[in-house]
Design a protein that fits this description.
tt1808, chain A; 4 helices; 12 strands
C-alpha cells in the first residue's frame, strides 16, 4: 500500500483578491483563512478602543486610524486585517487606494474564541517580522490588554496585564485609556 501526501497549496495575493466578496479573509504565510464575523461583545470593545484612539489621534494631528476590514499588504503571502491600526502622519504615504502597503505603527487585535492562536502567535510573530512598532492583544475574557513594543526584531511585553487601571501607548505619547472605559459593560 502506498501512502500519498497531499501538498498544501500556497495562496498568493492574487488568490486572496479573487476570494469571495461575501466573506472576510486574511492571507497568513500563504494560507487563506476566513474570518468569522465578530461577536457583539468584540465589536463593543473594538468600537470603544477605536473611538478613544481616533479622538486622541485627531485632536493631536498624529496620523490616521483604521479598523477592519482594511487590508495590510505585507508581501505576496501575507495580507492581514488588524481589528484597529494607527499610521503616524509621517508615514501616511503607505496608505494606498486598495490597502495599506506597509506595516502600521500600531496594530490592535481583539482575541475571539476562534482567533487565539492566530492573534497571540501567528500575527504576533508576523507583525514583528514586518516591523509593526507596537502591538496590543486585547483579551476580553480576562479584561486585559497585553502591550508589546518591537525591540531588535522581536516583541517585548512592556506592561503587566491586570495590574493597572489603564492602558498607555509607548509610541503614541500621552495616549491613555481607562480599562473602565474599554470594558464598561
Amino acid at each position: 500500500m502506498t501512502l500519498t501526501v497531499a501538498e498544501k497549496k500556497t495562496y498568493t495575493y492574487d488568490d486572496y483578491l479573487s476570494a469571495s466578496d461575501d466573506e472576510s479573509y486574511e492571507l497568513i504565510e500563504g494560507e487563506l483563512l476566513m474570518n468569522p464575523s465578530p461577536t457583539p461583545y468584540h465589536q463593543r470593545i473594538s468600537g470603544i478602543i477605536e473611538f478613544e484612539l481616533r479622538k486622541f489621534v485627531n485632536n493631536n494631528g498624529l496620523g490616521e486610524v483604521f479598523d477592519a476590514p482594511c487590508d495590510v499588504h505585507f508581501d505576496d503571502e501575507n495580507v492581514m486585517q488588524p481589528d484597529i491600526m494607527f499610521i503616524s502622519k509621517n508615514r501616511l504615504n503607505i496608505i494606498g487606494d486598495k490597502n495599506i502597503q506597509a506595516s502600521p505603527d500600531l496594530a490592535i487585535e481583539i482575541v475571539s474564541d476562534n482567533s487565539v492562536y492566530r492573534d497571540m502567535e501567528q500575527k504576533k510573530r508576523l507583525y514583528a517580522k514586518f516591523g509593526v512598532r507596537e502591538y496590543w492583544i486585547v483579551i476580553p475574557e480576562t479584561k486585559t490588554i497585553e502591550v508589546y513594543v518591537l525591540d531588535n526584531g522581536a516583541f517585548k511585553l512592556v506592561n503587566e496585564p491586570g495590574t493597572a487601571d489603564h492602558i498607555e501607548s509607548p509610541i503614541i505619547k500621552g495616549l491613555k485609556i481607562d480599562f473602565k472605559t474599554i470594558f464598561s459593560f
